[in-house]
Every structure is written in C-alpha cells, then in structure tokens.
Amino acid sequence: MNKKNPVTVIAVIFVVIVLGATALGLSFQTPHQDDHDHSQETAASEYLHQHGEDQEQEYTCSMHPNFRSTDPNERCPICGMELIPVTTSAARDDDLTRIEFTGRSLALLDLQTYVVQRGSASAQLRMIGSLEFDERSLTAISAWTGGRIENLYVNFTGDYVEAGEPLVELYSPELYVAQQELLQAYNQAQRDAPGFLADSNQTTLRASRERLRLLGLTSTQIEKIIESGEASDRITIYAPTAGLVVTRNVSQGDYVNTGDTVLELADGDQLWAVFELFERDLQYIEVGQQLEFDLRASNERIEGVVESLGPRIDAERRTREVRVAISGSEHSLTAGSFVRALVNVEVDDVMTIPASAPLLTGDRAVVYVRVSEDSSEFEARNVEIGRKLGDSYEVLSGLAEGDHVVSRGAFRIDSELQLRGRPSMMAPQGGGAVGHDHGNGESAGSEQQVTHEQHQESAAPTGENLQLGDLPRHYFAMWDALHNDDLEAWQSAATDFYQFADTIRWPHNMHDLHAELSTGAGHAHHVDSLDRARELFQLHSQAMIALARADYLEVNAYLMFCPMAFDNQGAYWLQPDNRLLNPYFGGSMLRCGDRVESFEAGHDSHGGH
C-alpha cells in the first residue's frame, strides 16, 4: 500500500471541514480578518457562535408558530409565508418558567416594570347602600282586643301624627263586657261591708282595672268610664309617640284579632345608613368607626359613626350590613335614598405590586419578573396576594424587595409562553399552541394567543386594516343585558353581535379569533338560561380582550375580573365605563370584582390602524 503524504491528508481533512462548515452556515476567518465587518454573518452563524455547534437554528411561521423547521428557505406548509428565526433563549429547554426576547421583540412588546418595595399603602374602600328608618325608633300600633275598625283617623302611609293624636276607633264586644265588669266592681267596692269582704271587693276592682289596661285603655280612659258610669263598646287608640305612618295594614270596616298590627310609626329624624360590605373587606370596618358618605342625588356630605354590623353574611351576595346612625333633621334626609360611603384605609409595612401585574385565575396568581434590571429574560412566578389596596395588591409570598415585576404587558408574555408550548397562566401544564386543524396535521395558533410582535408583523395583510365598527357596541349590549339578568335582551344583542361579526373583513390570520367570536352563532334564541348565555359571553370576552390588547377597539374600555365566576375559576370581561357591573352574577353579586386595566380609544400601537 502506498503511503499518502501527511501534508496531503491534512489538506483533505481541512477541505472537508471547510465544506461541512459552509453547509452549516459557518464562516472561518484568519487573524487578519478579525477587524472586518461581521454584518454579513448569517443568523445560523450567530446562533452557533452563541450556543455551540451542537445546536441548529430553528425557523417558524409568524402566523403558525407551532411549525418548526431548520431550513430558512422553506415556507410554511399551512399558509405559504416565509419563515422567521425562532427567538433565542438563554434558558435551557427544561427551564419552563423563563423566556427571553430579542431587542426588537422587547421593544414591540412595550413592557413596563415595577420595582417591588415595602412601605405604607393607602386605599379607598367604597360602599353603596340606602337610608332606612332606625329600627329602634319604630312603634307598632296593635289591636289589644279583637273587633271591627269603626273609624280610621289615619288612612294613608306617609302621614305625620303627633303624640296623643287619635289613630283608630275600634268596636269590641269584649271591651264592652269588661267595662261593665269594672262598673259593677266599682259599685260593689263603694258599699259598706265587713273587713274581709271589703278587701275582696277592692281586689276585684283592681283586677277589672288591670283587664281594661291589658285591652289597651289608658288610666285616664278607665277613670272616665268610672266617672261617667257608662260602658262603651268602642275604644279610641291614640299615638304613643310622634312619627311618620310607615305601614297601614287595615282599612275602615276591617275586622282585626288581638295582637294584629294596625299601624306602624317611625321617627323620621332617626335614620340608619345601611351599606353593603363585601366579605373580603370586613377587616376594614368596625363598630365606632367614623365614616364619610354622600347622597347620590345631591352629593351632600354626611358624617356618621358605625352603630352596628349585620348579624351574618348574606349567603348569596356575600355581603354584610354596616349600619351608621345619623340624624335626618340635620340634613333633610329621606328613607330609601341611595348613599355612597368612602373609607380611607392606611396599611403600614406592606409589600405591594401594581394591580395590573398579577394574572389572576381562580386561586392562582402569576407574575412575570425580569431576571435582572437590564435583562431581556423573564421568569414566571406563582405568588400569593392578599388585600387589594387602591391600585395595588398586597404580596404575601413569592416575591422579594427589589424584584422587577412586569406591570404592563404580562398578558403578552403569557401568550408567548402558550405559543411555545410552555407552562403559563392559562395553560399551567404547557402543551402546544391551541388552534384549528387545517387538514394537514398542523395546528394554527389561536389569534387570542398571538404576541404583540407577531400581531404587528402579520395581523393584517398589506394594504388592509381591520375595522371593528359597531362590534364593541353589540358586545357591550350583551354585557348590559347580563348584568341586568335579562335573557331576552341578551338574545337580541347576541344575534346582532354575531351578524355584525360576519360582516367584518377579517384577515386570514384572524380566522381562529373570528371563530371564537362566532361561538353559538345562529342559536342565540335557543339559549334558555342565563348560565349558558354567560358561558358564551366569557368566550366572546376572551376574543374581545385580545382585540383590545392589540388596540383595535377604537372605543374606551375597562378590563374587569371576577375571581368567583364559574365556581371560583375567575373570568374577565370588558365594559364601557369604570363603574363595575358584573355580568357573570348580575343582581346577586353585581359589584363583585376588580378593575384590572383600561384601554383608551385611538391608541395606535400597530401603525395605520
């Protein structure tokens, strides 16, 4: 066998290495080339320089991010679009709680962070209620004996009576018999009799007086009967105190039984402001606390002291009554008026984060934390949150002082994790992007989960802008119907919502979102329960929130969250003003929930919209 020249062998090996490296997109430079411009390096070369030659650059479709390929020249098999490089991540494949963005991606996400700190926090607790008569000032006028109402001197509610004024004249045979017994006992007591018999007559007289007193006669009336010497089958009932007639249970000519309430009087100057306090806010209110509140009609400012708390929490509304005693004469107040109370709450030595930072779902709360101040890498953390303090949440565990928490844009990071099949708030166990089957075994990512960067790059085809028109108005009509517990109104609004959604020129990459908006289309009038209507509304809300976050609504909207909806799983919705009205519970718990975020009309973040 002929020996090959070692130099030749080395040269051949060198050529093979160079050719292999060229196929992988690598470039070799001599020491004299180190000063040359590197701007022409391929994306694959950059990736291998950063992560080693044992990893390959992956490419994906901006509209169908679940598709992966190592060939940059390949096109998406679903839509035919060119592929883009997958965002690099310094996190390991098994590090499922971290995600890193490129500089451009980070700029497009428009994130804001907040440095976690400990200190004092203040909040304003708002309660609504109404004015009611002080229960301690109510006086019931009852029939002390059975009979017929001969005369009713007060024959309408709202009438004002003075103390001692006649109210009712009652005909009673029983009363007539009792008066005759009184006169007989009196006459017998006036006769001369032996000592033991005289004592017995006096005892009988006292018993007759007591019987008449128990039948409702006053001492003065009893003496007048004795003076006149005549029994009467009628008795007049007088007002024991001054007050308003708040209840009238009889009419002239009615028969009543012993103990029946005929009228009820109330002192109009003694009122209670009765507020509804949610269970979660019980810690802020106690008996003896000073409150400020105002009338809705006149905005008159009133002060009062908490007199008592209701004995129990309402099982359906999950609220407890707070009663504040006030004087109606000082403010010309009327029972039944609506009132709003404002309670200032000060809490010391507490760690807080903005209310927009945590993503809430049921009992879970997830926040995204920047790994370091200048890093483009973020990690998800489960945190335990406590009280809502103004626009902040108390943090009980999961964060430390100095952490940089994402206060704006957390939903966008969560969506990106979902698209990559990582665990996220909405998909704790991870898994692929959710979408529809396109007939070739591939699944397209839901538009609701598309990140801010992907939306800007591919949400609308060239030369075409998405216009929602009156779609938000029809959505808000469904919300209005549900918080008013009006199924028929929801059916009408949902029908309009579906019909209008079909008239919109949806970009092809938003077909999944359109499908979510159309869930239940054609069957609105077959929905026979508010529970089913609310389930559909929750699906529609997810899609509308996605449109709001992508700045397509063109109207002001407020994002609300109810942690108790759907068996404590929690649910979000949009509404046109910031006065929270819960569509998932309606009248049973109308005020349950919190405001999470607001969207301003005309805020253009995707250009040309």
TrEMBL record:
Quote one Gene Ontology molecular function term. Answer: transmembrane transporter activity
This chain's protein is named: Efflux RND transporter periplasmic adaptor subunit
What sequence ranges are listed for the domain CusB-like beta-barrel?
270-341
Q: Which family does the record assign?
A: Belongs to the membrane fusion protein (MFP) (TC 8.A.1) family.
Q: Does the keyword 4Fe-4S apply?
A: no
Give every CusB-like barrel-sandwich hybrid domain span: 140-265
Report domain CzcB-like C-terminal circularly permuted SH3-like positions: 352-412
Source organism's superkingdom?
A: Bacteria
User: Which ranges carry the DUF3347 domain?
Assistant: 474-549
Q: Name one Pfam family in it.
A: DUF3347
What are the entry keywords?
Transport
The species is Aliidiomarina soli
Question: Could you give a single Gene Ontology term from the biological process aspect?
Answer: plasma membrane copper ion transport
Q: Where is this region: Disordered?
A: 422-465
Q: What residues does the Heavy metal binding domain cover? A: 59-86
**Which NCBIfam families does the annotation name?**
RND_mfp
Q: Name the Gene3D superfamilies on file.
A: 2.40.30.170, 2.40.420.20
Q: Which GO terms describe its cellular component?
A: membrane; outer membrane-bounded periplasmic space
